[in-house]
Amino acid sequence: MKNQASQDEAPAPEKPFAGLVRGRIVHYYPLAHECRYSLPGPWASIVTNVLNEEDGLVTLNTMPPQPASIGTDPVLRVTPISYSPDGAPGCWSWMFPGQATRYSPDRK
């Protein structure tokens, strides 16, 4: 008899970061000092570099949701940022369940 996974549990993808590519929008959970003058996270962020596809380590351009003061850069560039499925401060996560596999860069 075959071992079958419980219907309550989704099977883990073989490559959990297969859809992690430059240009992908993800959530960034800011540290306390980063959201001092802005709204708390998560913040929308763009993956600008994938440093380690096996661990999900990335570089992000993050846009805090409050306008920046004149003369300051409105984008927070952070690196290296690790993945956290629970949204730990200073980490990134997918915006919604299945985002890692839902959109594939090689899908036509």
What report would you give on this structure?
- By secondary structure, the chain is mostly beta strands.
- Helices cover 4% and strands 28% of the residues.
- A five-stranded antiparallel sheet has the order 4-3-2-1-5, with no helix packed on it.
- It is globular.
- The N and C termini lie far apart (38 Å).
Write the layout of secondary structure elements.
Elements: E1 25-29, E2 43-52, E3 57-62, E4 76-81, E5 91-93, H1 99-102
Antiparallel strand pairs: 1-2, 1-5, 2-3, 3-4
Keywords:
108 residues, five-stranded antiparallel beta sheet, 1 helix, 5 strands, 4% helix, 28% strand
SS field, number of helical segments: 1
What fraction of the residues are assigned to beta strands by DSSP?
25-35%
Question: Into how many domains do the coordinates divide?
Answer: 1
Query: What does the oligomeric state look like here?
Result: single chain
Mean pLDDT: 80
Shape: globular
Q: What is the radius of gyration computed over CA atoms, rounded to a whole number of angstroms? A: 16 Å
* Main structural class: mainly beta
How far apart, in Å, are the first and last alpha carbons? 38 Å
Low-pLDDT runs: none
Order of H and E elements: EEEEEH
- The helix content, as a percent range, equals under 10%
Biggest sheet character? 5 strands, antiparallel
Number of strands: 5
Identify the strand order in the major beta sheet: 4-3-2-1-5
